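Anyone able to model this chain together with magnesium ion?
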Amino acid sequence: RRSSDLVTRIVMQQNLRRALEGNGLFLHYQPKINLSTGLLAGLEALVRWHDPELGMIPPSSFIPLAEETGLIESLGEWVLRTACAQNKSWQDAGLPPAVIAVNLSARQFRQKDLAGMIGQILAETGLEPRYLELEITESVIMHNVEKVSAILDELKRMGVSLTMDDFGTGYSSLSSLRQFPFDKIKIDQSFVRDITCDPHSAAIARTIIVMAHSLHLEVIAEGVETEGQLNYLKEQKCDVMQGYLFSEPVPAYAFETMLRENSRRKSEIDAVSISEKTILIVDDEESVLDAIGGMLAMEGYRVLAAASADDGFEMLAGNRVSVVVSDQRMPAMSGTVFLGRVKELYPDTVRILMTGHADMESIMEAINNGAIFKILQKPLHADFLRGKIEEAFKFHELISWKRQSDQKSVQ
Ligand code: C2E
Ligand code: MG
Ligand code: MG
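re: yes, here you go
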């Protein structure tokens, strides 16, 4: 068994070397999304190997091999050069500039003049250093602290940004990060995976976010796959997310489409002033409509007020509404039933229920059906309401962006 393992390894090693010299390696790119705008925050380059005999081989099996054999030095250099050249060529094509992240492995920190090599590649490809980010795992900084921190300082001086990858899997503490010039940290996907169901993972993620922010580090969550995880992370003020929920790593041509779509979205958002942000309020009590409607109108929102569910449907049919706020207790139709129907008719709306009484059963059902984004308890304080409405509009931007990108990927 041992010897056949050895044979496999030798064959793999030869094949990997050949792939590196030929055209067997390529890069995929995965978007990172800013959680407060829904816009692109950058991208990560991830290496792929297609072997003619063995098929697709995941990096988790060949990166360790490349590290052991030393092949990682030339592989890493190839990845950097390819990623920088690709990023520059997008910029040259007139696409808005994005920061590209490249992973570095421990072994590369032992090679001669890593920072010099990176500077050379930037000069050769013409990519400005601020558009390159390097991702480094915890294990790298745990060994040979002095040398690594000298290299990182040098890279930082060049203007490249630095991200701690897979944070939480090693044994370093957040405060030890202060010895290194990191700009961002990535919460490991193992915590993100269970964030909505395991209190322990949730607590770790929450703590990482709070502490990282106090150290002025930006926080990225990796491996986000569900809306639930996304909501939780947004709630905890995580800055950026990456994961299959938005997109898997894709080939360059597909990423280019995302870049174009993103710049279109960005100009759209810039163009939509707050006065075009439309909110519908449904309540049978006129005094509530007046008070809330007046306050939100002063904020600059376009406010539609309806005294019944029927009037509400009428207004929804004639306007592009993003956020719907409804009272629960209304004579003809309850708020939960109303919002449930709004969900079916206008799934892109963000729906909020206001209630003074706890009618647990119908509220629970509405939540479970996804009919409701938030429940607000009456009486409502102006500042509180204002904050919640702002959140609702941000969330609306995010979901409509996601829906558009889903539609794109289906086509
Ligand atoms: P990483 O840097 O932590 O990259 C994130 C990995 O998670 C990627 O796997 C990515 O495809 C995957 N991923 C992204 N979103 C999701 C998600 O929503 N759910 C799940 N389950 N996974 C998600 P990949 O591409 O297989 O790479 C694995 C690891 O291999 C990387 O982990 C990185 O450590 C290493 N690697 C990849 N490319 C390079 C490279 O060019 N150089 C070096 N040194 N290492 C690399
Ligand atoms: Mg990474
Ligand atoms: Mg990672």
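The first strand starts at residue 25 and ends at 34.
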